[in-house]
Amino acid sequence: MSRRKRNDKRSLSDELKWWDTFPWWGIAIVAILSWMGYQIVTKDSYDLAWDRVIPGISITITATLQAFAIALALGLLAGMGQLSKNVIFRNLARTYVEFIRGIPILPLIFTVALVLLPQLQNALGFKLSFQMRATVTLAFIYGAYMAEIFRGGIQSIAIGQVEAGRSLGLSRRQTMNSIVLPQAMRAIIPPLGNDFIAILKDTSLLSVLGVLEITQRARQFSASTFKFREGYFVLAFIYLILTLGLSLLLGVLERRMTRDDRGVRSNRGID
Amino acid sequence: MISIKNLSKTFNKNIHAVKDVDLEIAEGEVVVIVGPSGSGKSTVLRCINRLEIPTKGSISIDGVELTDPECDIDTIRAEVGMVFQQFNLFPHLTVKENICLAQRKVRKRSKSESNEMTMKQLLRVGIPDKADSYPRQLSGGQQQRVAIARSLAMEPKIMLFDEPTSALDPEMVKEVLDVMLELASEGMTMAVVTHEMGFAKAAGDRLVFMDEGMVVEIGPPGQVFENPAEQRTRDFFDKILY
Ligand SMILES: Nc1ncnc2c1ncn2[C@@H]1O[C@H](COP(=O)(O)OP(=O)(O)OP(=O)(O)O)[C@@H](O)[C@H]1O
Ligand SMILES: [Mg+2]
Predict the structure, then answer these.
(1) From CA A181, how far away is CA A160, in angstroms rounded?
(2) Residue A219, by phi and psi: left (phi above 0), alpha (psi -120 to 50) or beta?
(3) Cβ neighbours of residue A139 closer than 8 Å, sequence gap 6 or more
(4) Closest ligand 1 atom, residue B44 Cα
(5) B22 vs B9: CA distance, rounded Å
(6) Residue B4 main-chain phi, psi, to 5 deg
């Protein structure tokens, strides 16, 4: 290790150079994507893989959107449930959250999709399609994660806000809807966005249940043709495009929702 | 108008914040509550609109028993304005929206009615030009005046103030006290926790001195202040008026 020279020319300044803040990673990612895209488009060997995998994208996207929507509802319910005055709601919600959070996602998928949901179906007498059962499984899992996001967001709002609302005569519900939730959204939206992307990626786990989304299709293709490179290369490319596109979109949304003109700024630290 | 009988409040089974307080507040009366930190002033005030639930005793407002589990607390709270030390404006709403919210949802006023009332109250507290600002764009004194306007817009029968000027820079204290003085002179029933003795003398009908959760002394502000009957009261005033 060479020690830094004493009269080093570096100046003590907190001004960052352009190359220090430039998003090089963005360039790198775009380069990687272009290279992958170029291979897929120009090399014939990828055509078949692409044709076999891409039809699964509608299932991937539908499952993502449905699972996100259901998880959102479950999360809100369980998040508020944990803060409820009612001891039964509170403990039901807590049981659900702790149960899910204590088991890794893959075993959970088997447990929920193959054990819990079928039994629930029998007990309550409803029937879900196979794909829907897989989607609900994912939603059920993410609902618990989101519950924690909602609970944390709501609890981050100072008690004084609730007291001000209640002392004006607003009911608990009115205070929650008009005062607490709109403010909590600032804290809730960014992690929910992360979960949205995480759900998209975790739809790949539904392949273990045999759902014909893109991962399952890539697996089937590769296993039957032994073209592992082509199959998984295409698969990775599709996921990257989807997740990067989504995070760009969410970034815009987040910036809009947490913009300074509505009061408190989202807290990103002082750096 | 407000009748507090035997009020006790215990937190966590062993913190006796308020012990056997009796206090009557007549219509139009301004009662100022003083006392050392932790003496239970806020707790008494907060019991009056049931932000704290009394452990023992009773509180009635206009004959309605607050400790009755059947009473509609939201309706009562709409009649009892509360101003907090930390203002507690809603940061995601403009000044106007802050003031309109409860008028619309609780008083069920129309948009134009509530707008009109909002402007009237903003004029009264001297900042009609801030209607479209967000709370963080206002000074502390202005924020507290908005908080007062927000309560007044509900046309409450009683106003409770919990150290409304304690979080303010000295130069802003007066603008808030002026609003409160005017309110008192208009005959509003008020219970005010404050250490502003000037206000107590100018507007207070009675001064309540509390210590260790109990009411130690009640009387006309001038008298309690200059010639306290109790040694504890005397010690307290000696301390705050170096
Ligand atoms: N929510 C609570 N939980 C536990 N203890 C509390 C709670 N609120 C108040 N106390 C305690 O009750 C006592 C009275 O508190 P209170 O806030 O009424 O005093 P105060 O006279 O308003 O004091 P200050 O001048 O500091 O505002 C204090 O000992 C306080 O620590
Ligand atoms: Mg206090």
Answers:
(1) 14
(2) alpha
(3) A66, A67, A68, A69, A70, A71, A74
(4) 18
(5) 13
(6) -105, 125
Q: What is the pLDDT of residues B18-52, one digit of tens each?
A: 999 999 999 999 999 999 999 999 999 999 999 99
User: Which tokens belong to B193?
Assistant: 């926790």
Using CB atoms, which residue from B77, B89, B134 is nearest to A167? B77
CB pair distance less than 8 Å for A164 and B84: yes
Letter for the amino acid at A75? Answer: G
Hey, what are B55's tokens?
């452990």
Place of tokens 């001297």: B126
Task: List, in order, residues 6 or more apart from A32 with CB less than 8 Å away.
Answer: A240
d(CA B102, CA B151): 9
Which ligand 1 atom sits closest to the C-alpha of B43?
18
Distance CA B196, CA B76 (A): 29
Containing H/E element for B166? Answer: none
Q: What is the distance between the alpha carbons of residues A66 and A145, in angstroms, rounded to a whole number?
A: 16
pLDDT at position A269, please?
Answer: 36
A62-83: b or e for each residue (b if 16 or more CB lie within 10 Å)? ebbebbbebbbebbbbbbbbbe
**B210 CA to centre of ligand 1 in angstroms:** 13
Q: E strand or H helix at B57, and its extent?
A: strand B56-61
How high is the pLDDT of residue A11? Answer: 64
Predicted TM-score of the model (pTM): 0.82
Q: Give the confidence band of B178 by pLDDT, cuts at 50, 70, 90.
A: very high
- The answer to whether the CB of A100 falls within 8 A of the CB of A140 is yes
The residue-averaged pLDDT of B108-114 equals: 95
**B74, B84, B86, B159, best to mutate vs chain A, most A CBs in 10 Å:** B74
The residue written with tokens 């519900």 in the block is: A173
Q: Give the pair of three-digit tokens for residue A153.
A: 């967001």
Instruction: Identify the residues whose C-beta falls under 6 Å from ligand 1.
Output: B 11-12, 15, 17, 35, 37-43
Number of H helices and E strands in chain B, helices first, is: 9, 10
**Whether pLDDT at A7 is above 70:** no
List phi, psi (to 5°) of A207: -60, -30
Tell me how far the alpha carbon of residue A116 is from its chain's centroid: 23
Residue A231: pLDDT band with limits 50, 70, 90: very high
Which residue minimizes the CA distance to atom 13 of ligand 1? B17
User: Quick one: residue A169, left, alpha or beta (phi over 0 = left, psi -120 to 50 = alpha)?
Assistant: left
Task: Encode pLDDT of A95-125 as tens digits.
Answer: 999 999 999 999 999 999 999 999 999 999 8
pLDDT for the residue A271: 35
Q: Which of B173, B171, B154, B149 is nearest to B163 (CA)?
A: B173
- Under 8 Å CB-to-CB from B177, ≥6 apart: which residues? B165, B196, B198, B199
State pLDDT tens for residues A130-171: 889 999 999 999 999 999 999 999 999 999 999 999 999 999
pLDDT at A203 over 90: yes
DSSP conformation class of A256: H
